[in-house]
Design a protein that fits this description.
This protein is α/β, with parallel strands linked by helices. It contains 16 helices and 18 strands. The chain folds into 2 domains: about 240 residues, Rossmann fold, CATH 3.40.50.2000; about 210 residues, Rossmann fold (3-Layer(aba) Sandwich), CATH 3.40.50. The chain binds GDP-alpha-D-glucose.
Length: about 475
Amino acid sequence: MSPIKQHDRDFVVVASRLPVDRVEGTDGGQEWRPSPGGLVTALEPVMRAAGGAWIGWSGDAGPAPGPFDADGLHLVGLGLSETEVKRFYEGFCNATLWPLYHDVIAVPQFHRSWWDAYVAVNRRFAEAAAEQAAPGATVWVHDYQLQLVPKMLREQRGDVRIGFFNHIPFPGYEIFAQLPWRRQVVEGLLGADLLGFQRRADATNFLRACRRAVGLTTRGSTVRVSEPGGSREIHAAAFPISIDVKGLAGIARRDDVRKRSREVCDALGEPGLVLLGVDRLDYTKGILHRLRAYGELVASGRLGPRPVLIQVASPSRERVEAYRTLRDEVEVMVGRINGEHGEVGYAPVHYLHQSYPREEMAALYLAAEVMLVTPLRDGMNLVAKEYVACRNDENGTLVLSEFTGAADELAGAFLVNPHDIDGLKDTIVRAAQTSPAEARRRMRAMRKRLFEYDVARWAASFLETLEGGISAAQPAAAEPEAS
Ligand code: GDG
């Protein structure tokens, strides 16, 4: 553990989770293992250059691990009690805000005790940020779990610059208005100087909530709020997140990964067609709709002989009831399709309720002729971008829900409305039957966009706008490409 130093960090990231996981060490003690995600990849260079700190929860119930250095990053671990894990994380974050912000696909639950826990935990994060930030520092707060932090932090530290990025959609006002604490949430967010969203539509929805829930006036992407010391301008705009494109394309180019991809195909026997789905097992991802469409296609023979769908459904939020129910439903449907249409040596669906290393994921992306990304609602969806990044061979087609942020950017995809099962079936068939030349043209267009705008550019454009204020507010909004 490094000695606790305060007020000396020029750049502070505040996210619900630390970019490391606590694991059992070889000596029986506890160790921290990096959990590489897009966010840490994007922010690591900025963190290192600025000697930044990352504030987050370790992921377990129990006391705070406190500040420590891991892998060259300064981490400040906060603790959540077992009750807070239930009420804040599983409750207000995952059973109130998550369904509400994803168009009420599941019914959001509103409990006052959950809200109280949300306020208390947000306050703890804000206090930790106030303690770490140097005078005039930049603090970047992430996601729906921490929407009250900007205001709470500003109240303590009027000198810091505060950015907030929302990774999930911001809902239309008729839905958002259901939240009993809508005003507090909007006011919490307005503590920031810059609010980033995945799509323009999310920013527009937020600006409308400012007008309707708080009665503020908005002008373009700007909201003006009056405060005791004068008035302040806040900007809300789209900054579509991306991935470490070159890093992933590099993994997909490796000999061992390409060899593994051939092994996967061999292990499937002689599949007529390989389709792939990769999702956290979450009801927003449209897995049931996808399975219904695919099952009917297999039954009708429209995909030709022996198609195989590999469905990776990585375990997620297993203590939340809606997720347990979904798992049961998915597994019943997979069993039914395989039971009715499989035979000895052939299963139409390979369902994998597991998590895999990045190399294995890249090998699967390379094996897939048709990638199915069909969420009912998704802020961005990184899986779609990962598939495109891996296809150095410019082969493969992407079926993509129009209700994802990625659909605004990846115009070479076959866009679908996943609620329309017949439309989904027709689109999957179309994607499977595309000529190689047409598939290549589409893949090239998607790769061009992706390689131009990777996660480093995303972070840089957000931070530059935050530093530059209104005159630099030229958000990297996604412009659809001609397809
Ligand atoms: C939220 C928003 C937004 C999945 N299984 C394995 C694995 N994954 C990786 C994927 C991808 C990531 O998890 C999932 O990212 P998504 O973007 O698809 O979705 P969410 O988790 O819901 O993320 C979303 C995102 O935040 C970023 O702003 O795009 O809209 O909901 O990277 O590859 N990775 C490995 N093994 C697995 O088994 N290694």
